[in-house]
Predict the 3D structure of the following.
Amino acid sequence: MKLRHLSIAASALCILAGATVASAQSLPADLDAKSRARLPYVQRKDTDEGAKRLFDIFVRGSNAPTDELGGPLAFAAYNVPVANALLDLHDGAVGKGTLDAHVRELAILVACRATNYDFEWNGHAPAALKAGVPQQAIDVVRSNGALTGLTDADAAVIRFGRELLNDRKMSSATFAKAKELYGAKGAMDLVAVMSTYAVSGFYAIAVDEHMAAGQPTLR
């Protein structure tokens, strides 16, 4: 979850992230044409002062009453206190956590892959590359591929996330490796980072959020 409005990667980054591309086919009948989801974006005029922080972060331009709240908390914002709590969770897990950018961005991608969360994948795949995550590791996450050929550290993060989010059961060996690499606090920060992005992914699943034609998708 970026603390600025995310720009979606261009077609070159689609190739870079190994992504498929959304086609121009018509949307399902229950999707809003603008949000491309089952709910429209929340508008500033329909919220109270408690939403100001969200709009200040995620909405560009003037403070017009018709400002619409897009971004990763677009649908969580139907309950403003929940959206603000998720923003605080992000600030604690990402902004004040112990994980370096490489580990953190890889962990985010694992959570996005587990929930097919296209919006954040598109923002964080380039960020992961910039943080030093090898393209091979990104491709393995996207394809749910084997961990062979990766560094022990990258494999440990991916395995941790797969067991946490997909298996919903973690082996002693997987947890011990994370603790060895990142300490007890770091292992818990992996849980915090992954769960933060998974929650936003769950909102996208519920509202069936679609990417615009020509943008990368995980499905």
